[in-house]
Amino acid sequence: MITLESAIILFVCAAILGWFFGRSRPAQQSPGVTPGNFSNHYLQGLNYLLNEQPDKAIEVFVKMLEVDSETVETHLALGSLFRRRGETDRAIRIHQNLIARPTLEQRQRSEALYELGLDYMRAGILSRAENVFRELLPDKHLNVRAMEALVDIYQQERDWEKAIEIQKQYQAATGSSQLPLIAHYYCELAESALLKGALDKSGKYVKQALATNRNCVRASIIEGKLEQKLNNDREAVKALQKVEQQDPLYLSEVVPLILQSYRRQGKLEEAIQYVKDLIHRHHDNTLALAWVDVLAETQGDQNAIRFMTEHMKQQVSVGGLRKLIDLNLESAKGPEKENLLILKNLSDKLLQNKATYKCDQCGFEGKVLHWQCPTCKKWSSIRPIREFAN
Questions:
Q1: What is the pTM of this model?
Q2: Architecture of 177-266 per CATH?
Q3: Cβ count within 10 A of residue 210
Q4: Ranges in the chain annotated CATH 1.25.40.10
Q5: Sequence ranges of the chain with CATH classification 2.20.28
Q6: Assigned CATH for 279-353
């Protein structure tokens, strides 16, 4: 069966060729194309179309189309349709054919070059696509679109240095701030260096990220982890506590790290007061669960159970129930313990199927925090679900 896009392509080709067939252009006739064989090719293409052989029909029609100032847009449209259909080889062939024409105007050549770059991207030939878009950077009509495509390429290749370079050019050309994105690129470099043990280099990139965007939560988290690796727990706490002002929704990401640094300093009383103040300011279930752990450690399970029971009366949550079960299991025996284990298994299954993070752009949900959404590719759009513990 002929698809809708095939039908569109064939309709465009047939309409244009029918128009050409009705015109008398002996002075501009292409070499080797006479009225007689033009008619034969046209009828051959229509025959393929009628016999539901769209691929063969398209090949015939494309070969017959003259390239001049009046048909460039038709060729560009056909190439674009081929690309959307996934037929990148044909799209590339059409656009390369256009670019090779010496009579093509510069603006038209640039458009064909841009389309060719998109063809290469769709085909996964990113090195060729990069070269094409780099060539278009001086073009005042297409440089912005070329920059957008280059950023896409560099993000796919994880070439963050080049992505930073192009984003800065894009910001200068459009006046649109790209600082939050550039800060993420510095964070990517910082995380990579941290994993390799290059702590000095990681610290340099973190500073560049925060200098670019002082409200970058991700940079503060990396800074805290870096200071912990350097055994600078006091500085780690200071770095991680900045998240409350940057975006308190991410507190659930940093509180365990802050408590870890407090413990390593032997400052559990400060940890207790800090978490209590956070719960008072933000009423977040996740913070309450973190507080219960500290309470159990410093004041015993019974005090933690009393706190969690009172908390659950005001704010029922699966996470809270799971924590309460764990606390009671320590001292439970016999049938009581068996019943608690059944409840524990049920709550585990409920939590296992519950997403922890959600993209506020496309709705993607997951259990791992991605700073760039895997689905819509937006940055900083995936956020902790505040209702996770509910």
A1: 0.78
A2: Alpha Horseshoe (1.25)
A3: 20
A4: 4-158, 177-266
A5: 354-390
A6: 1.25.40
pLDDT of 332 > 70? The answer is: yes
Per-residue pLDDT of 227-242, as tens digits, reads 999 999 999 999 999 9
| CB within 8 Å of 175: residues ≥ 6 apart | none
3: left (phi over 0), alpha (psi -120 to 50) or beta: beta
Check residues 235 and 56 and name the one with the higher pLDDT: 235
Residue type, 289: L
Separation CA 353–CA 144 (nearest Å) = 43
Q: What is the 3-state secondary structure (H, E, C) of the chain?
A: CCCHHHHHHHHHHHHHHHHHHHCCCHHHCCCCCCHHHHHHHHHHHHHHHHCCCHHHHHHHHHHHCCCCCCCHHHHHHHHHHHHHCCCHHHHHHHHHHHHCCCCCCHHHHHHHHHHHHHHHHHHCCHHHHHHHHHHCCCCCCCHHHHHHHHHHHHHHHCCHHHHHHHHHHHHHHHCCCCHHHHHHHHHHHHHHHHHCCCHHHHHHHHHHHHHHCCCCHHHHHHHHHHHHHCCCHHHHHHHHHCHHHHCHHHHHHHHHHHHHHHHHHCCHHHHHHHHHHHHHHHCCHHHHHHHHHHHHHHHCHHHHHHHHHHHHHHCCCHHHHHHHHHHHHCCCCHHHHHHHHHHHHHHHHHHHCCCCEEECCCCCEECCCCCECCCCCCECCEEECHHHHC
Confidence grade of residue 57 (pLDDT, cut at 50, 70, 90):
low
How is residue 9 written in tokens?
A: 């392509």
CATH superfamily placement of domain 4-158? Tetratricopeptide repeat domain (1.25.40.10)
CATH class of the domain whose range is 354-390? mainly beta
The whole-number average pLDDT for the span 332-361 is: 82
